[in-house]
TrEMBL record:
This is peptidyl-tRNA hydrolase. Belongs to the PTH2 family. Its EC number is 3.1.1.29. It comes from Heliocybe sulcata. One of its GO terms (molecular function) is peptidyl-tRNA hydrolase activity. The lineage of its organism: Eukaryota, Fungi, Dikarya, Basidiomycota, Agaricomycotina.
């Protein structure tokens, strides 16, 4: 083994040891958010408008936009909830709604429960008219609250 390889391996082992040592002296060795309870569930709902007749690829792209919008919002407004969601599997569910009116009702209901609710408006470069609301992201948040808003919707 060359000396540069052994130095690299040694540095990697030392770095790993440092981080393991730091974590084991912590009062929270797993790094879990203390507000996250093992029995709590968190999820993100992605509600897709079916009246727009989007292709599978378009739906995937719009759901990705909604996921990132919700993530960015919670990163600044409520990082504790975001950590809980990250630490409990990052559950996501794709659901369908009939039209923009239903989407607006869902968004209003989510906001009344203090859930993040971000709607995505299409840029209009491909299949959908500019400014059309395509997907609504609700959460991440406590699954029981997200389900209060989305519980009657069908899976995509």
């Amino acid at each position: 083994m060359s000396s540069s390889n052994s130095r690299g391996i040694r540095a990697g082992v030392q770095t790993a040891g440092y981080w393991l040592g730091r974590r084991s002296h912590s009062s929270n060795p797993l790094g879990l958010d203390p507000t996250a309870h093992p029995d709590d569930e968190y999820k993100l709902a992605l509600v897709v408008r079916m009246d727009l007749k989007m292709s599978t690829g378009k739906i995937a792209a719009q759901c990705s936009h909604a996921t990132l919008a919700c993530y960015a919002e919670l990163r600044s407004s409520n990082p504790a909830i975001l950590r809980c969601w990250e630490q409990t599997g990052q559950t996501k569910v794709a659901l369908r709604c009939v039209d923009e009116k239903e989407m607006q009702i869902l968004q209003t209901s989510a906001r009344r429960l203090n859930l993040c609710a971000k709607s995505i408006r299409d840029a209009g470069r491909t299949q959908i008219a500019t400014g059309s609301r395509t997907v609504l992201g609700i959460g991440p948040g406590p699954a029981r609250l997200v389900s209060q808003v989305t519980g009657k919707l069908k899976l995509l």
